[in-house]
Design a protein that fits this description.
By secondary structure, the protein is α/β, with parallel strands linked by helices. It has six domains: 207 residues, Endonuclease Chain A (Endonuclease, Chain A, 2-Layer Sandwich), CATH 3.30.870.10; 121 residues, no CATH class; 206 residues, 3-Layer(aba) Sandwich (Rossmann fold), CATH 3.40.50; 176 residues; 226 residues, P-loop containing nucleotide triphosphate hydrolases (Rossmann fold, 3-Layer(aba) Sandwich), CATH 3.40.50.300; 77 residues, no CATH class. It is 44% helix and 16% strand. The protein has 45 helices and 41 strands. The strands form ten sheets. Strands 1-7-6-5-2-3-4-8 form an eight-stranded mixed β-sheet, with helices on both faces. A hairpin with a 2-residue loop joins β37 and β38. The longest helix is centred in the middle third of the chain and has 28 residues. The two termini are 55 Å apart. 42% of the residues are buried.
């Protein structure tokens, strides 16, 4: 309390109150607030002229108002525009200041952590304003820098001073009244006080009412109500808000966003879709048709991650890392794409680093510092990894690329189970997965279901939170489809289509990028390449029927094979560590697919049939290798005299090692994309004893019989080989050779490259390459002379054979020299899977310099006109300079043909491409004979031949009688139809109908950011750590726009961009955010309208939250009963966090998969007893603890809270001053 001395008489007249010091600067005993509080209690009327009325500052004086008020208003407050200094804004019109004050006051109230006491004070303030005890006005005619606090105690006195005035610098804020360095002077002389009173009254008359605005401000803020109003947030500049909203909409992916120099528009959109899936579900299936660049999509995502463009993916305290798990044949291709070529990581060093034996190779990506690393691992190594290695790899790498992911569709295999163990790190953080396959659904929807399970645990939590029951939908579909096969009821078909649409729209569209050429052409019709419209100019294939070149000796050879090849048994394979190969019978079933055992001997016969279709030479090399392996076994076993388990094991191991059996098995695995069954040694013993006729020494007896059978095999193979020798050219009394195939580490023999007297396939090739004047009239294929030709074959042996024979022929064919000879150099090249990377790149550039920037290589080493290659160049390589593609042999999978032609017939190609497909004749009859023999053992040979052939007769089993014709038809199918043939009917129903507006506009926005606005990573640095609700105003009549995010616990389940125009709420796309860049102003305008609009948004948001809350996972069976039983015992729980996590998890686990397991687990531990469906619990805390451990071990334990919440990320209000 300040002591007042009334004894001093002012010479000018009147008594002056002596309150002590007249200078108030907030030093000790000179705090402004003390004077104001004391004067308020004793005055009849108060008048404040201030720069700003901070509402929460009212609490400093609220207790000091008089108990009774002699007049109204008791307190008059005039505010001016002094605050514009704080914001740097220039106020040019009065209403702008009004809007600014309203905006700031609401923001001030909402930003505070308002206490109950403050709420009481604000409620009182509202009451005082409403009752006109306090009246507020706004002076907006000019700047108001003055600060006046005027207290009138005796306003009608003719002689005494009417009161006290405080004039100076203190604003009506807590700091201004108590802490800031201020300078104010208290004036008490009658003349001064009367002058200041008149000054205020004049100001009051010029000011406009703000009391009603104050009432609205308090109401809009919502601080006095239980149902809080939408918070405005923090006002920022429009451009900064644009960056902030875009950054969060794209989850931080706004740094050097698009690689338009490498990827096309539809590929960029594919990358964006994939990233959205990775953000939400931790995985994506890249299933675009062959030739559309799946590997480029995956490579772009890896590059972005390594370069720090996905900060939310990277665990703390480690560099980003990616691991590619690949079939061995694809490792070099991926290394070329990511490391050796300049498509990705341009200008960055790729340093080969020492890696453990598990990896094929590993590289660090360096730019000034190590950014991250990329590892490459073969599928064979991966599927045999042990638990500890998998655990270490899961911690070491963050994102995994699985190419040819269809090899993982069977959940019974080691490879599938091993991938699943990479889902989480030991810290609990989840890894990301990119699965690449052109056939995600080969025969059954369960194929893609098992692929999804590779990156999602059994709860499918992100789907369940949206009310989507993945398990239930898949099971409904498979069950109904099986019923329709038996009874094609139209009502059931209608229901099946309904379920299929639900699976497509709610599941597959979320986790799969699947487009075909037809889709691309329809949806990207306006896409331009180098300024020209997008086209797929697919060539019409020519079928080369070469039987006209068959000679008598060759026909006799074919007849011999028809007779002998099906009868071969390759008895030595009975002694392999694995006699059988596991094949998946994935006929539609609610249960997991059944596994079938197929003998290796039968697979070898099929292998020989396919080699024969490729040519005489690859057939010979294959059967000679098999012959040498069987002879190795025969010789070693024949020379062993005594037999027991020990000697048998020793001889067997020696034979296996000497015959390089592992390579044999690897070749079969690679051919059929399979996984071998690991067979125990004891089983081999049983197989041998099963041959025995004598019980005295069944092991010896069994071996003797197998030796007889091997001897029979060897005699048959000798006969076949002698027949082949009769076809060979002789030179100097020896078989004529043109070199040898390079010997690989585990080759059992070195193979010379022979020439044959009458190889019909080679003769046909020479016929269409050679002088057209001599081209046979039997061949209805245009001449390829003078064209740039790429010749594809499935097998390395064929490639070497063609290369050597064509070189020899070209040297001696003078007519070809001007085209294919340059001095002593021949313009022909060879690329196989074993070709050194540098040589491969050199050949690619010299063959197709225009599309690979290879003119320097051409200048240095000369061009290549004919390139012979295996499928090592069938994917991801651009050979667009070529004029012709020759498919020397036909892969039974049409997609490989599409892939091969796609190397040349690239998107945007305008020239006519000639495609020549060899059509087998007599050779295919040999294969039919093999299949007929195999059909005696196997009911459905589709299992062995592969579902790739089934597409020639969609959804049907292979018919052996028509098999040959189907293969021949493959050579004639137009290229535009091959892609459709390569898709099963089932997957055709899941291809998206059209590109969504959201996808397209996401891409357009990113394209604008990078290529039109020219934003760099530095432009987004200031928003990276911003979090919360931000807003602005723009001078553009676009209404109100807001971004909302919705969460269930830690999971973001929905995001929306909402607009309010003409009173209606609509959902928009992020392209709308560009409006923020059309105005640099952020002055508040029509705040009332904005607040009312935000209230409408909040009501809309509340409805969305209610819907998300209503989307509950309906549990079934035992898990439902267990959830209910635990809930009833909730009061007894000691660890509520543990309980919540357990309860939330078992409420969402798929009942079909877990009910029986958890029930058996709890009963087995003696924790529960069942009486009918009733569960009796012994100790609920032990049950919770045990379930917690069980669910943790299964890696499905969920979060303690799945509370549904919304978050307004930001908003802006557009206005037109003239409206």
């Amino acid at each position: 309390m300040i002591d007042i001395d009334m004894s001093y008489i002012n010479p000018s007249g009147g008594i002056v109150m002596d309150f002590g010091p007249s200078i108030m600067d907030n030093t000790e005993n000179r705090e402004v607030v003390r004077l104001i509080k004391d004067q308020l209690k004793n005055c009849e009327e108060a008048k404040f002229a201030i720069g700003y009325f901070f509402i929460t500052g009212f609490s400093l004086i609220e207790d000091d108002f008089p108990a009774e008020f002699q007049k109204k208003p008791f307190l008059k407050i005039v505010m001016g525009d002094e605050t514009t200094k704080q914001t740097g804004e220039e106020i040019t019109e009065g209403h702008e200041l009004r809007e600014l004050f309203k905006d700031k006051m609401i923001g001030e109230l909402q930003e505070q952590n308002i206490t109950k006491e403050q709420i009481r004070n604000i409620t009182l303030l509202r009451k005082l304003i409403a009752e006109e005890i306090i009246e507020v006005k706004l002076f907006d005619k000019s700047k108001l820098h003055a600060k006046l606090y005027l207290f009138l105690t005796n306003p009608t006195s003719e002689y005494q001073s009417p009161g006290l005035a405080l004039v100076g610098s203190s604003n009506f804020t807590k700091k201004g009244l108590t802490k800031n360095k201020e300078l104010n002077v208290a004036l008490t002389s009658r003349e001064d006080v009367l002058y200041l009173n008149r000054w205020f009254d004049d100001l009051w008359e010029e000011a406009t009412d703000f009391s009603q605005d104050m009432l609205k401000i308090i109401d809009y803020s919502g601080v006095t109500e239980k149902d809080h109003k939408p918070k405005m947030g923090q006002r920022i500049d429009p451009e900064l808000l644009f960056k902030y909203l875009v950054y969060h909409w794209f989850d931080g992916r706004v740094k050097n966003i698009l690689k338009k120099d490498v990827l096309m528009e539809f590929q960029l959109i594919g990358v964006m879709n994939a990233i959205n899936s990775l953000n939400t579900y931790n995985g994506v299936i890249l299933a675009d048709s062959v030739g559309l660049g799946k590997s480029f999509l995956a490579a772009a995502i890896i590059e972005e991650y390594i370069n720090g463009k996905h900060p939310t993916w990277k665990p703390e305290n480690k560099k980003p890392s990616a691991l590619l798990i690949l079939p061995p044949s694809l490792i070099n291709q991926w290394e070329d794409l990511l490391i050796n070529q300049e498509y990705f990581f341009q200008g960055q060093e790729k340093k080969l680093i020492t890696s453990n034996n598990e990896l094929s190779s590993a590289y660090e990506i360096i730019e000034n510092e190590t950014l991250g690393k990329i590892g490459f691992m073969s599928l064979g190594k991966f599927q045999n990894l042990k638990k500890e290695s998998l655990k270490r790899i899961a911690d070491e790498y963050d994102i995994y690329v699985i190419d040819e992911a269809h090899k993982y569709r069977n959940s019974n295999t080691k490879r599938w189970k091993n991938i699943r163990k990479l889902q989480r790190k030991t810290t609990g953080e989840k890894n990301k997965f990119l699965l690449l396959t052109a056939t995600p659904i080969n025969n059954s929807i369960r194929d893609v279901y098992n692929l999804i399970r590779l990156f999602m645990d059994d709860t499918f939590m992100q789907f369940r939170l949206k009310g989507i029951e993945v398990d239930e939908l898949i099971n409904q579909y498979t069950k109904l489809k099986k019923e329709i096969e038996i009874d094609p009821d139209p009502h059931k078909k209608k229901e099946l289509k309904k379920i299929a649409n639900k699976i497509k729209n709610e599941i597959l569209d979320e986790i799969m990028v699947l487009r075909t050429r037809k889709y691309i052409l329809e949806q990207f019709k306006d896409l331009q390449i180098n300024g020209k419209p997008l086209i797929f100019k697919d060539p019409q294939p020519f079928s080369l029927e070469y039987s006209a070149f068959y000679k008598k000796e060759y026909l006799e050879f074919i007849e011999l094979l028809k007779e002998t090849l099906p009868e071969l048994n390759f008895e030595h394979t009975k002694l392999y560590g694995s006699r059988y190969i596991l094949f998946e019978d994935d006929e539609i079933s609610v249960k997991e697919p059944e596994m079938k055992l197929i003998e290796i001997a039968d697979l070898l016969k099929l292998l020989l049939g396919k080699r024969l279709e490729s040519g005489i030479y690859p057939f010979e090399t294959t059967i000679r290798r098999i012959y040498e392996k069987e002879k190795t076994f025969y010789d070693l076993f024949k020379n062993q005299e005594t037999w027991n388990r020990t000697t048998f094991k020793r001889v067997l191991e020696a034979a296996m090692e000497k015959a390089y059996i592992k390579k044999d098995l690897d070749e079969i695995m690679d051919e059929y994309g399979l996984e071998e069954e690991v067979t125990r040694f004891d089983r081999i013993i049983d197989i041998i004893k099963g041959y025995a006729k004598s019980g005295t020494n069944p092991l010896k007896s069994g071996i003797e019989i197998i030796l007889d059978l091997m001897e029979k095999d060897l005699r048959t193979m000798d006969k076949i080989l002698n027949s082949i020798d009769n076809l060979k050219e002789i030179e100097r009394s020896e078989f004529k050779t043109l070199g040898k195939i390079p010997l690989q580490k585990e080759d059992i023999i070195e193979m010379p490259i022979f020439t044959y007297k009458d190889d019909p396939k080679l003769r046909a090739l020479k016929n269409i390459i050679g002088n057209p004047e001599f081209k046979s009239a039997e061949i209805n294929v245009p001449s390829l002379k003078g064209k740039k030709i790429v010749i594809f074959t499935q097998y390395k042996d064929t490639a070497y054979y063609l290369y050597k024979n064509l070189r020899y022929w070209i040297k001696n064919e003078i007519d070809l020299h001007t085209w294919l000879k340059d001095g002593n150099r021949l313009k022909i090249g060879l690329v196989t899977g074993e070709t050194e990377t540098s040589t491969k790149i050199n050949y690619i550039k010299r063959f197709s310099p225009g599309s690979n920037n290879g003119w320097n290589e051409v200048k240095k080493s000369g061009d290549i006109e004919i390139l012979i290659t295996t499928d090592a160049l069938s994917e991801g390589i651009n050979l667009q300079d070529a004029d012709a593609v020759v498919n020397y042999d036909l892969p039974w999978n049409p997609m490989i043909l599409v892939q091969r032609v796609g190397r040349v017939n690239r998107i945007g190609n305008e020239k006519d491409i000639t495609v020549v497909n060899y059509m087998p004749s007599g050779e295919i009859e040999v294969m039919v004979g093999i299949l007929n023999k195999l059909n005696e053992k196997i009911e459905d040979i589709t299992l062995v031949v592969g579902k790739d052939v089934r597409i020639l007769s969609p959804e049907e089993k292979i018919n052996i009688e028509t098999f040959g014709e189907k293969i021949k038809d493959l050579s004639k199918i137009p290229m535009e139809k091959l892609e459709e043939y390569g898709l099963s009917n089932e997957i055709k129903g899941f291809i998206p109908g059209k590109i969504s507006r959201e996808q397209l506009e996401d891409y357009k926005l990113l394209n604008t950011i990078q290529y039109e606005l020219g934003y760099t990573p530095e432009d987004f640095a200031e928003v990276e750590k911003m979090d919360g609700n931000y807003y602005t105003y723009i001078e553009n009549d676009v209404g109100l726009t807001a971004i909302y995010e919705y969460y269930k616990g830690p999971y973001k389940v929905k995001k929306q961009i909402l607009t309010l125009e003409d009173g209606k709420i609509k959902e928009s796309t992020p392209l709308k955010l560009l409006e923020l860049l059309k105005s640099r102003s952020s002055k508040p305008y029509k705040v009332d309208k904005a607040i009312q609009g935000l209230e409408k948004f909040k009501k809309n948001s509340d409805k969305v939250i209610d819907h998300l809350k209503s989307v509950t996972e309906t549990q079934r069976g035992f898990l439902r009963d267990l959830s209910n039983a635990l809930l009833l015992k909730r009061e007894e729980i000691s660890d509520m966090d543990k309980f919540r996590r357990v309860y939330n998890t078992i409420s969402r686990l798929p009942s079909r998969s877990y009910s029986r397991k958890i029930k058996s687990y709890l009963i087995g531990k003696g924790l529960i007893r069942m009486r009918g469906n009733e569960i009796e619990m012994n100790d609920v805390n032990k049950i919770v603890g045990s379930l917690h451990d069980y669910l943790t071990a299964k890696e499905v334990l969920g979060d303690a809270s799945l509370k549904v919440e919304s978050k307004m990320r930001g908003w802006y209000c557009g206005y037109n001053k003239n409206s």
